[in-house]
Design a protein that fits this description.
heterotrimer, A mainly alpha (359), B alpha+beta (141), C mainly alpha (415), B: 141 residues, alpha+beta, Rieske Iron-sulfur Protein, 2 domains, four-stranded antiparallel beta sheet, 1 helix, elongated, C: 415 residues, mainly alpha, 4 domains
C-alpha cells in the first residue's frame, strides 16, 4: 500500500514539482496563545463556502430560474427529489451560518489588529469578501420566489433606489426593470452562480494566498520569540477538521428538525405583508433606517443613514491605514473601543428588529 | 497493533464511513426522480382529439383541478375547477351549456361568471392555446 | 353715448336675471323651518340626505304650497296639504309612486305597484280596518331622510332591515294586542344567515323581507315556507322533493325545511342533527326499531366513519408537516375528500342510504390515497431522524478519531 502511494507521489512530483509545495506546507506554523481560538474562523468560513458551492451545484440540477417555475422547482426539490430537502436545507442554513462566521472572523481579526502592516491587503480583500457574501445572501434569497423573498427584495431595492441622482438607475440595473419581476430572478441567478463565484475565486484566492505568504498575525505585545508555534500540518488542520465536523453535525440537526420552508409563491399584486423584514444580517441597517427621524437639519433622515453606512463601511475598510498606532506595533485601545461600538451597534440593532413591536 | 496504528486505522475508518454517509444522499439526489418534471404554469391539459364538442375534462393544474370545456360551438375554454363557494370541484353540464357545482347547485356561465346559486365569485379563467395536437392551458397574467 | 346706454342695459339685464334666478330658487319652507326647533327643524336637517332632494324635488312637491312666497299665509296656499294624517300616508306617497308616467321621468325601471302590494300585506289589511299602529311607508323608509335601499345607511339596506322591522316587532308592549311572538329578531341574530350578513358582510344572506316580502309582508303559509327556502337552496329542496319525506310531510301538513331547521333561528346544521342521538331531528317523528330509524342510524354511522377517516388522514399530514416533511400535495388531495363530505352532507336531504353510501365510497378512495401518503410522509420523517443519528454517529466517531490523533501528535511534538 505504502509503495503504491509512494510511486503516485513520485509521478506527480516529477510533473508538478510538488516537493517545493510540500516543503512550504511543512514549514507553515500557527502561533498558539490565549486568543488563537479565533484563528479557526477563517477556516470555518472557507469550509462553509465550499459546502455552499457543493450544495449549490446540486440544487442547480433541479432549480429553474423563471417566474413560472422557480417556486415550483423548490417545492419539487423539497418533496420529490431524494434528499432534496436535505440539500436545500443545508444550503439555506449554511448560508446563514457562513455569514455569521464571516462577521465573527471579521471582528476577531479587527480586535486582534490583524489588519496592521503588512496585512492591509488581507483586510481589504476580506472586506470585499464580506460585501460579496452579503450579495450572495441577498441574491440567493430571492431565488425561491416566495412571498417573503419577493417583498424583502422589493424593500431592499427600494432603499437602494432612494440614493440621490443615481439611486433610480442603480435600482433599475439591479432589478433588470422597474420592479421585481422574472427579469430580476434571471439577473440575481446570474449574479449568484456566475459573477459572484467568479469574484470570490479571485478575491478569496488573493486573500488565502496572502495568509499563506504572510502567516498568521500575532496579537500586539507578544514578543516574537516568546510565542509558541504549532505546525499547520498536521496539528492545526486536524483541529480545524474537528471544528468542521462539529459544525456539520450542527447543520445536520438543524436540517432534520428545522427544514427550510417552501413558503407561498410570490404574488406581485398582493399587499406587502406587515412586518416584512430582510434577512437578519441586513436588519441592523434596516432598523436604523426605520428608527432614524424623518429629517435631521432639513436633510432626509434615511439619506443620512445610508450615507452614514457607506462612509462607515469605507472607514472600516481603510482601518489599516487609519490605525497608526497598530501599524507601529503599539496597543491601540481607541480602535478597539470603536470596534466595540460598531459590534454592539450591530448586535443591538439586529435584536431591536425582532424585539421592538411595530418595526 | 500499537496505539499509533490503531488511531490511524480508527481515523481512516471513521473518515471513510463519514464520506460514505455524505456520498449516499448526494448520489440518490442526482439520480432521476419518480415524477420527472416540475409542474408549472403551463400544462398540456388534453389532446385535441380527446375532447368532442359539448364535453369537458377535469385536468390537474399544479396541485389544483382545472376544467377544460369544448363548447357546442367548438370553442375551447378553461377555468379553475374549484367552486368559489365551498371548494367543491365543478362539472360542465352539456344540456344547459353551463358549468355546475354539484354540491349546492352553483352555476357559472362560459365566461366563469356566476349565474345562480351560492358562489360569491367567478371562476378563475385560464388561457387556452393549441399547439399541434396538444391543448395547452396556462394561467393568465 | 350709445356705448354707455348699451353697457347700462346689459348691466340691468344681468341684475334682473340674477335676482329672478334667486327668486326662482327661493324656498321659504326651508328658510322658515331652519329657524325653528325640534320636530319643526328636523325635516330640514333630515332632508339634506334625502333621495328626493337629489332628484331636484323639495317640500312643496309633496306637501304643496308656494315656496316662493315669504309670507306664511301666502306660502300655505290652496295647494298646501300639510302633514298628512297617519292613515293617509300610503296614499300620500302613492300619489307619485304609483303614477308610472310621473315616476318614469326619474327612474324608468322603478316599480309602481308598491301600494297595491301593500294592501295585500298584514300591515295593509289592518290599516284598512283602522289600525294605525301598523307599519306604513314612513315607518320603514323614514320621513324626510329617505335613502335608496342600495345605500348602506338606508333603513331598508339589507343589514339594517332587521332593526327596522324589529323596532315594532321586538317591542313586547307595542305588539301586546297582536298576539304574535316578539322573539324573531333575537332568534334571527343567532342564525347562520345573520352571521353571514353581519360578520361576513354577505349581502346575499336573507333578511326579513326576503322570506316575508317587503311591501306585501305576511308570514309565509306552511306550504310556502319550503318554496321560500328553495329560492336559495334549490339542491337541498330538490333532493328533499325526491325523497319519501315530501309526500309524508305534505300529508300531515308539516312545513318542510322549518320542521328540522327552524324559521328565524336557523343555526348552522351540525352532524348531530342526523341519526338517532338526542340532538337528532329524525327521532322527533320516527320510533325506535322502525325502518326509518334504522336507516337514520346507518346514515349517521357511515357519515361518522367517513369523517373519522378524513380526520385521521388530516392528523397524519399535520404530524408529518410539523416534522418538516413536504406534504402540500396530499393536503390538497384531501380537500377533494372534504368536497365529497360537503356533498354528502347535502345529500342527506334525499334520505337515501344507497346514494349516500355510494358517494362516501368515492370519497373513501381519495382518503385512502391521502392516508397512504401521510403514512409515507411519517416514515420519511422517521427515516430522516434515523439518517441523522447514523450520520452524527459517524461524525462523532470521526471527531473522536481526530481528537485522539491530535493528542497523539501533540504528545509526539513535546516528547
Amino acid at each position: 500500500m505504502k509503495n503504491i502511494l509512494q510511486s503516485i507521489y513520485f509521478y506527480l512530483d516529477t510533473r508538478f514539482k510538488l516537493s517545493g509545495l510540500i516543503q512550504f506546507a511543512k514549514k507553515k506554523k500557527v502561533p498558539e496563545h490565549k486568543h488563537s481560538f479565533w484563528y479557526y474562523f477563517g477556516g470555518i468560513c472557507l469550509f462553509l463556502f465550499i459546502l455552499q458551492v457543493l450544495t449549490g451545484i446540486l440544487l442547480l440540477l433541479y432549480y429553474t430560474p423563471s417566474v413560472d417555475s422557480a417556486h415550483e422547482s423548490i417545492q419539487f426539490i423539497m418533496s420529490q427529489v431524494k434528499f432534496g430537502w436535505l440539500m436545500r436545507s443545508v444550503h439555506s442554513w449554511s448560508a446563514n451560518i457562513l455569514i455569521a462566521a464571516i462577521f465573527i472572523h471579521m471582528f476577531s481579526s479587527f480586535f486582534l489588529k490583524a489588519y496592521r502592516s503588512p496585512r492591509e491587503l488581507t483586510w481589504i480583500t476580506g472586506f470585499f469578501l464580506l460585501l460579496i457574501f452579503l450579495a450572495f445572501g441577498f441574491s440567493g434569497y430571492l431565488l425561491p420566489w416566495n412571498e417573503l423573498s419577493f417583498f424583502a427584495t422589493r424593500v431592499g431595492t427600494d432603499i437602494a433606489g432612494t440614493l440621490p441622482l443615481i439611486g433610480k438607475h442603480i435600482k433599475t440595473f439591479i432589478l433588470g426593470g422597474p420592479d421585481v419581476t422574472g427579469a430580476t430572478i434571471s439577473r440575481f441567478f446570474w449574479l449568484h452562480i456566475g459573477i459572484l463565484p467568479l469574484l470570490t475565486v479571485i478575491i478569496l484566492g488573493v486573500h488565502v494566498l496572502l495568509v499563506q505568504i504572510l502567516g498568521m498575525s500575532k496579537p500586539i505585545g507578544i514578543p516574537q520569540n516568546k510565542v509558541k508555534e504549532v505546525p499547520f500540518f498536521p496539528n492545526f488542520i486536524l483541529k480545524d477538521s474537528l471544528g468542521w465536523m462539529l459544525i456539520l453535525a450542527l447543520i445536520g440537526v438543524l436540517c432534520v428538525f428545522f427544514p427550510w420552508e417552501v413558503g407561498q409563491k410570490a404574488d406581485p399584486f398582493a399587499a406587502t405583508p406587515i412586518g416584512i423584514k430582510p434577512e437578519w444580517y441586513f436588519t441592523f441597517m434596516f432598523s436604523t433606517l426605520k428608527i432614524i427621524p424623518a429629517h435631521i437639519f432639513s436633510i432626509e433622515g434615511e439619506m443620512i443613514a445610508i450615507f452614514g453606512f457607506m462612509i462607515g463601511g469605507l472607514l472600516w475598510m481603510l482601518v489599516p491605514f487609519l490605525d497608526r498606532k497598530a501599524a507601529k506595533e503599539r496597543r491601540s485601545p481607541a480602535f478597539s473601543f470603536i470596534g466595540w461600538i460598531v459590534f454592539l451597534y450591530i448586535v443591538v440593532m439586529t435584536a431591536v428588529t425582532y424585539l421592538l413591536p411595530g418595526l | 497493533m500499537n496505539r499509533r496504528k490503531f488511531i490511524d486505522f480508527f481515523l481512516g475508518g471513521s473518515l471513510a464511513g463519514t464520506v460514505i454517509v455524505f456520498l449516499y444522499p448526494t448520489i440518490r439526489y442526482i439520480l432521476p426522480t419518480k415524477q420527472i418534471e416540475v409542474v408549472i404554469k403551463k400544462i398540456t391539459a388534453a389532446k385535441v382529439a380527446e375532447l368532442a364538442p359539448n364535453t369537458y375534462k377535469i385536468f390537474k393544474f399544479g396541485t389544483s383541478p382545472g376544467i377544460l370545456i369544448n363548447t357546442s360551438d367548438g370553442e375551447l375554454r378553461a377555468f379553475s375547477a374549484i367552486c368559489t363557494h365551498l371548494t367543491c370541484t365543478v362539472i360542465f353540464e352539456s344540456d344547459s351549456g353551463t358549468i355546475l357545482c354539484p354540491c349546492h347547485n352553483g352555476r357559472f356561465d362560459l365566461s366563469g361568471n356566476v349565474i345562480s346559486g351560492p358562489p360569491p365569485d367567478p371562476l378563475e379563467s385560464y388561457n387556452v392555446e393549441i399547439s399541434g395536437e396538444d391543448i395547452i392551458v396556462s394561467k393568465k397574467g | 353715448m350709445r356705448k354707455i346706454i348699451n353697457l347700462l342695459s346689459i348691466f340691468f339685464l344681468a341684475i334682473s336675471i340674477f335676482s329672478l334666478s334667486l327668486y326662482a330658487q327661493k324656498n321659504s319652507c326651508v328658510e322658515c323651518h331652519q329657524e325653528l326647533e325640534d320636530e319643526l327643524l328636523a325635516p330640514v336637517e333630515a332632508f339634506k340626505i334625502d333621495i328626493h332632494q337629489q332628484f331636484g324635488l323639495s317640500c312643496a312637491d309633496c306637501h304643496g304650497g308656494n315656496p316662493a312666497e315669504e309670507d306664511i299665509d301666502l306660502a300655505k296656499d290652496k295647494t298646501f296639504k300639510g302633514t298628512p294624517q297617519r292613515f293617509r300616508i300610503p296614499e300620500f306617497c302613492a300619489s307619485c309612486h304609483s303614477d308610472s308616467r310621473y315616476m318614469r321621468r326619474f327612474n324608468p325601471s322603478i316599480r309602481v305597484d308598491q301600494l297595491d302590494i301593500y294592501w295585500t300585506s298584514k300591515h295593509g289589511q289592518l290599516l284598512k280596518k283602522g289600525d294605525t299602529k301598523v307599519a306604513l311607508c314612513t315607518d320603514c323608509h323614514a320621513t324626510h331622510g329617505i335613502q335608496s335601499a342600495t345605500h348602506p345607511k338606508s333603513w331598508t339596506f339589507p343589514w339594517n332591515i332587521p332593526q327596522t322591522c324589529s323596532r315594532c316587532h321586538s317591542d313586547k308592549d307595542y305588539m301586546k294586542d297582536y298576539k304574535i311572538p316578539t322573539k324573531q329578531w333575537d332568534d334571527y341574530k343567532e342564525s347562520v344567515h345573520a352571521h353571514a350578513l353581519f360578520e361576513k358582510k354577505d349581502l346575499s344572506a336573507p333578511v326579513c323581507n326576503d322570506c316575508h316580502g317587503n311591501h306585501g309582508a305576511t308570514p309565509p303559509e306552511i306550504t310556502s315556507i319550503a318554496f321560500v327556502c328553495r329560492q336559495c337552496h334549490p339542491s337541498a329542496g330538490e333532493l328533499f322533493s325526491q325523497s319519501p319525506h315530501k309526500k309524508a310531510f305534505d300529508e300531515i301538513e308539516l312545513s318542510e325545511c322549518e320542521a328540522c331547521h327552524g324559521n328565524h333561528k336557523i343555526l348552522p346544521p351540525s352532524d348531530e342533527m342526523l341519526g338517532t342521538g338526542e340532538k337528532a331531528v329524525c327521532i322527533q317523528c320516527h320510533e325506535p326499531d322502525s325502518e326509518p330509524y334504522q336507516i337514520a342510524s346507518r346514515i349517521k354511522e357511515k357519515l361518522d366513519a367517513f369523517i373519522k377517516k378524513i380526520r385521521h388522514a388530516e392528523s397524519l399530514l399535520e404530524q408529518a408537516d410539523r416534522q418538516g416533511v413536504e406534504v402540500s400535495e396530499p393536503k390538497f388531495r384531501l380537500t377533494e375528500a372534504n368536497s365529497t363530505l360537503i356533498f354528502v352532507r347535502n345529500l342527506t336531504h334525499s334520505f337515501s342510504l344507497m346514494e349516500i353510501e355510494e358517494k362516501i365510497e368515492e370519497g373513501k378512495k381519495v382518503v385512502a390515497e391521502v392516508t397512504n401518503a401521510g403514512e409515507a410522509a411519517l416514515r420519511e420523517a422517521k427515516f430522516r431522524k434515523t439518517g441523522l443519528i447514523i450520520a452524527t454517529c459517524f461524525i462523532f466517531l470521526l471527531s473522536i478519531a481526530l481528537f485522539l490523533k491530535i493528542k497523539q501528535i501533540d504528545k509526539k511534538k513535546s516528547s
